[in-house]
């Protein structure tokens, strides 16, 4: 039979892609492929421009990760111009970056993840969205999400001129310092965010962990995938968002490699498949071993779960406590349960909130020493941050006039591309059996996909308030034998 | 009537920026309108549009074989319209519904103007020659 189940476009995610699920002659899953429409030409667009323009260009790549691209570009400029930002500039950058991290993680949780659990994975798509969520949890939660976002954006705007697309990143520092008056309102915001971060974790435990059926869903084999993991760690081997070394572990949890971001090309290679525009990164020294997970895989995952698995712990006390609870619930590390990413994401947001509270109490925060102006063109720079979705690398080369000659970006969704395919396949195996396909089952396949919070630069969105979902079941001859639609 | 005009588009996605260009030109013609330019419809817009009476939106849309045409539509005539460009965010009707559900005074959405830009999306910080040339007609 070798039927093909086509989910196109995937519901409620940021971008336009489709999942093909290939069935064998018995109607069981044989393979799964995630395909993405990629915008090409970005590198060409950048070549010949002044490298300093990158902090203004890259935040516009998409609306999902503007601050992450902005920060990676700013750090790449540090290297291109051979400057090291002073301590205060690093504090201010991290203050802004944590603010962005928090708003991003909560948008994902409340808009993309929580509806599946609050409304239930089998609820109608018409209800299983943020409107349904607010209907169930009350409008106060929605207003708080907006308030957190508003306050975080005020920080982003104050430091880097404008949200959602900051553009003030400068090599060697930050465009403006902070005053003692600024410290007051930033402190209030930090406290507000920390309270909210604690509240959301308790909400997650109430709506997900206390429901045995959801916990067993999260722990089920359908949402389990053995891969390697990659994340930034600080000098104490703890989770770090702004800076650090890139650490990789094997599926058994043992360290495989740890290296400076500038050495990424020694460790990461990209595999090309004819059916996808996206290139699949893999661990270069293991070699390409296909799109399957398992003990011998060379594909790896980045993002919130990878951070928990790779680091020895969280960098802040409350987040560390939550980390320990999570590791305990899953019986140790590494945690291969894909849906555990939602929990990991909330723990990371808590660390960001705690860290901002620490930063706001640093005496050096209001120092005037905010920029190293001793620029010396080095003509090459690599900037790396832990974007909300995982490791983000920007690599630039210039000529002697600082005009760009090479741009290479590896984004988190790209790192995860191989694992996304493998996760979808595993989920499909559990929920599409003997050719039985219905909307509820397919949403559970998508749940595996959405856990990664994939970010596709070219996004198309439904204008009519509905989430367009088309499912085609296609036989070996390419004939559509069944079509299911929700629009 | 307090009026707000939202121009949507990504300034580095070529003709996807048509909504931004037209909205900026219209602001020159109708200076009393509040102008919001954005690459996406996000929650933050609720704070910016609250307490206005009426709202217009201009954005790029995909409609094959109709490049350059201006389409006006509302929620009830969208059966054939599935996509509106936006780098990220919530769709406009969900955003307005969400705002009302949260207790905001949300303006009446009078009309959405969708400028069909064909199927190809490309990276460029300016409009294509075709759209640059026809901008005055589109504004008319």
What labels describe this entry?
heterodimer, A: 487 residues, alpha+beta, five-stranded antiparallel β-sheet, four-stranded mixed β-sheet, 14 helices, 40% helix, 17% strand, disordered N terminus, B: 140 residues, alpha/beta, five-stranded mixed β-sheet, 4 helices
Compose a concise summary of this entry.
With 487 residues, chain A is of the alpha+beta class. In chain A, 40% of the residues lie in helices and 17% in strands. In chain A, the strands form 4 sheets. In chain A, strands 3-2-1-14-15 form a 5-stranded antiparallel sheet, covered by helices on one side.
Query: What is the CA-based Rg of chain A, rounded?
Result: 22 Å
Q: Major β-sheet of chain A, in short?
A: 5 strands, antiparallel
* Order of strands, widest sheet of chain A: 3-2-1-14-15
* Protein chains sharing the most extensive interface: A-B, 42 and 43 residues
Uncertain parts of chain A: 1-16, 457-475
User: Averaging pLDDT over every residue of chain A, what do you get?
Assistant: 86
Range of helix content of chain B: 25-40%
Proportion in β-strands of chain A: 15-25%
- Count all strands of chain B and give the number: 6
Q: Output mean pLDDT of chain B.
A: 81
Kindly state the number of beta strands of chain A: 15
Q: How far apart are the termini of chain B?
A: 22 Å
Structure description:
The complex is a heterodimer of chains A (487) and B (140). Chain A has helices spanning 42-46, 54-57, 66-80, 87-118, 130-137, 139-160, 180-209, 212-219, 304-310, 317-329, 341-360, 412-415, 417-431, 439-451; strands at residues 4-8, 17-23, 29-36, 228-233, 245-249, 255-259, 268-271, 280-283, 300-301, 380-387, 390-398, 404-410, 460-462, 470-474, 480-485. Chain A is α+β, with helices and mostly antiparallel strands. The longest helix of chain A has 32 residues, at 87-118. Chain A starts with a strand and ends with a strand. With 140 residues, chain B is α/β, with parallel strands linked by helices. Chain B is 27% helix and 25% strand. Chain B has four helices and six strands. The two termini of chain B are 22 Å apart. β13 (460-462) of chain A pairs antiparallel with β5 of chain B, so a sheet runs across the interface.
